Amino acid sequence: MISTAATATGETERPQRLIDALVGADVPASARDVARVKAVAWARVSTDMQEERGLSVPQQLRDIRRYADEHDIDIVDEFHEATSAFRREAKRVEFHRMLDQVKADRSITAILIHDFSRFSRDSVRAKSLVRELRGRGVRVISLNDPEVDPETPAGVYMEAITYAKNEAYSREIAFHTRKGCRSNLQTRDPETGWCYKNGGQSLWGYRTERLVRGQDKRGRPIFKSIWLLDETVVQGRAIHEWVHHCLIEYAAKGASLDELRDFCNDHGLPARRGKYWSSSTWNSLLSPHALLQYCGFGVWNVHRKNGSIKPASEWVVVENAHRAIITEDEAKAIMAVRRGDARKRFGKTSNRSCSSPYLLSGGLFKCARCGANMTGLRLTKHAYYVCGSLPYRKGRGCGPGVYVPQLAVEAETIKGLSELLAVCRDPKAFARQVNNELKALWEKSNGRDPQAASKLAALEVKIANIRRAVEEGLSDAAWANTRLRELQAERRALTARAGGVGEPPTIDVATVLAYRRDAEKLLAHGSPLERKQVLRAWVEQVRLEPERLEVEIAYRVPPELFMNGMVAGAYLVVNHELLGTRLTRRWRLPRRGR
Question: Is 194 helix (H, G, I), strand (E, B) or coil?
Answer without folding.
Answer: coil
